């Protein structure tokens, strides 16, 4: 119902944590609930976009009107995002709100690790692919608008500004995830939208409201 300024546009959204296996029963994860990413996907769909949501494990229902691809690991998330990007209908807008594990366990065990008296196992980590940086790479399939998130502790805007340049995305949405904040897992978010031409700081609001306002900003940009 209502205005559909994103009708005819295809959007790809990532959401949630990734789970990186240690063995068949254990994994490394993080505190992302998927609330922010799912809210963005729902808001883009409400404005008429054709939305593919690639999500790690969450407790959330699928957002209405979205095609949901469930994954567990960062490598699965990358594969699903590249499949979406390279599909017949190109992706116009990509929003990477997922909290992707930067590292996975190198040589995860096929069998459950056991206490065998030899002391705790040493977990060697290896770097995961960067989905946002990959989607931001120049090329014929690059979405016209690529938006990343930056989860920071410390100088949020400065660190996120550097991250925007490093990853090559167009906008970055910075949020403070320091100890004592409930950005991870909570219902509210306080964000700074960093674009080439400056920073816009939004008041604290519900993640649904952040999603709605971001979708409106995207629609305004796409209409330009
Ligand atoms: O899920 P919620 O509980 O609602 O919490 C929301 C949130 C805090 C997870 C979300 O608002 C947020 O900040 N998401 C990004 C979390 C993160 O991992 O930030 P980062 O600064 O480490 O990563 C920067 C960007 O690169 C992000 O867009 C991330 O999706 C992307 N990335 C990171 C690593 C990687 N291997 N691949 C990526 O695509």
UniProtKB/TrEMBL annotation:
GO molecular function annotations of the record: FMN binding; metal ion binding; phosphopantothenate--cysteine ligase activity; phosphopantothenoylcysteine decarboxylase activity
Domain DNA/pantothenate metabolism flavoprotein C-terminal: 6-220
Keyword annotations from UniProtKB, A to Z: Decarboxylase, Flavoprotein, FMN, Ligase, Lyase, Magnesium, Metal-binding, Multifunctional enzyme
Pathway(s): Cofactor biosynthesis; coenzyme A biosynthesis; CoA from (R)-pantothenate: step 2/5; Cofactor biosynthesis; coenzyme A biosynthesis; CoA from (R)-pantothenate: step 3/5
Enzyme Commission number(s) from the entry: 4.1.1.36, 6.3.2.5
UniProt cofactor note: Binds 1 FMN per subunit.
GO cellular component terms, semicolon-separated: phosphopantothenoylcysteine decarboxylase complex
Function: Catalyzes two steps in the biosynthesis of coenzyme A. In the first step cysteine is conjugated to 4'-phosphopantothenate to form 4-phosphopantothenoylcysteine, in the latter compound is decarboxylated to form 4'-phosphopantotheine. Catalyzes two sequential steps in the biosynthesis of coenzyme A. In the first step cysteine is conjugated to 4'-phosphopantothenate to form 4-phosphopantothenoylcysteine. In the second step the latter compound is decarboxylated to form 4'-phosphopantotheine.
Protein name: Coenzyme A biosynthesis bifunctional protein CoaBC
Species this chain originates from: Azospirillum griseum
Lineage, highest ranks first: Bacteria, Pseudomonadati, Pseudomonadota, Alphaproteobacteria, Rhodospirillales
Full-protein positions shown: 187 to 410 of 410
């Amino acid at each position: 119902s209502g205005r559909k300024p994103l009708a005819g546009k295809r959007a790809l959204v990532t959401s949630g944590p990734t789970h990186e296996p240690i063995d068949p029963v254990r994994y490394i994860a993080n505190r992302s609930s998927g609330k922010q990413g799912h809210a963005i996907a729902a808001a883009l769909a409400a404005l008429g976009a054709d939305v593919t949501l690639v999500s790690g494990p969450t407790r959330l229902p699928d957002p209405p009107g979205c095609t949901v691809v469930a994954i567990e690991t960062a490598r699965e998330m990358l594969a699903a995002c590249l499949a979406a990007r390279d599909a017949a209908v190109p992706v116009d807008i990509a929003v990477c709100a997922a909290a992707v594990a930067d590292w996975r366990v190198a040589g995860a065990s096929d069998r459950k690790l056991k206490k065998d008296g030899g002391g705790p196992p040493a977990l060697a980590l290896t770097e995961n692919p960067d989905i946002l940086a990959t989607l931001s790479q120049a090329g014929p399939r690059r979405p016209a608008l690529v938006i990343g998130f930056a989860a920071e502790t410390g100088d949020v805007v400065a660190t996120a500004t550097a991250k925007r340049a490093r990853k090559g995305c167009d906008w970055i949405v910075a949020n403070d995830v320091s100890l004592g904040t409930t950005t991870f897992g909570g219902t509210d978010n306080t964000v700074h939208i960093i674009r080439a031409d400056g920073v816009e700081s939004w008041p604290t609001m519900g993640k649904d409201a952040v999603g709605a306002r971001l979708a409106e900003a995207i629609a305004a940009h796409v209409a330009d």
